[in-house]
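pls design
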């Protein structure tokens, strides 16, 4: 058993020719207003039964959050687009094997994390010997956001990922524990340490400018909608 599937599926191969044109059209199409909220799990079940509308609704709900997930970690718009589409292509390819053993949200972020790991491995392999594969930097973000990014980069990898999953992706402790294969208490302790460390890194910047401090505090709300723009 792998995740929500009886057998593993290939989610790292990329269909670059995009034979599924309908997915591309959905990507370009604005999200339609939702008249009645149906659970993600119910939509996935309907999609398994052949409902294209159910898949389109899942796509509309998670296109932005998944794009934000990739963009924050790779800091590159084009690859964030590609990997978001790849995540949904993986859902399509494996729909028949899906079993509702976990939340659909957890399942989608599980695919996203696997794709992210594969992307980082590829960048590492493609880097010249002796050089570290650096992720492209963005210079368009306001100072407050750049301070937060720089502070996040100073955290340990494990603590940074727990913090980002909690604050940006708004996942529960149980969901984070499942994704990272950690006990819930470990998630809690890492989250506490990462928050304290981040606060310590940001404190000098707050003291240097009262006006900037207010902007940092506002940016630190880290809501899902805000995360899509960062």
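designed seq:
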């Amino acid at each position: 058993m792998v995740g929500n599937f009886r057998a593993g599926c290939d989610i790292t191969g990329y269909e670059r020719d995009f034979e599924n044109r309908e997915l591309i059209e959905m990507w370009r199409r604005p999200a339609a207003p939702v008249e009645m909220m149906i659970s993600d799990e119910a939509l996935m079940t309907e999609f398994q039964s052949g409902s294209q509308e159910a898949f389109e609704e899942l796509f509309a709900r998670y296109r932005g959050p998944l794009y934000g997930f990739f963009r924050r970690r790779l800091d590159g718009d084009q690859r964030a687009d590609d990997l978001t589409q790849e995540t949904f292509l993986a859902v399509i390819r494996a729909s028949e094997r899906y079993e509702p053993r976990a939340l659909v949200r957890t399942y989608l972020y599980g695919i996203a994390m696997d794709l992210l790991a594969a992307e980082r491995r590829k960048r590492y392999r493609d880097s010249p010997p002796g050089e570290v594969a650096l992720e492209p930097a963005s210079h368009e973000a306001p100072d407050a956001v750049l301070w937060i990014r720089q502070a996040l980069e100073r955290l340990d990898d494990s603590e940074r990922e727990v913090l980002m999953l909690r604050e940006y992706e708004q996942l529960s402790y149980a969901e984070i524990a499942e994704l990272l294969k950690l006990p819930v208490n470990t998630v809690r302790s890492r989250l506490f340490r990462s928050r304290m460390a981040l606060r310590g890194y940001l404190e000098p910047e707050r003291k240097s400018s009262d006006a900037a401090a207010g902007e940092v505090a506002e940016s630190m709300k880290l809501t899902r909608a805000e995360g899509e723009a960062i």
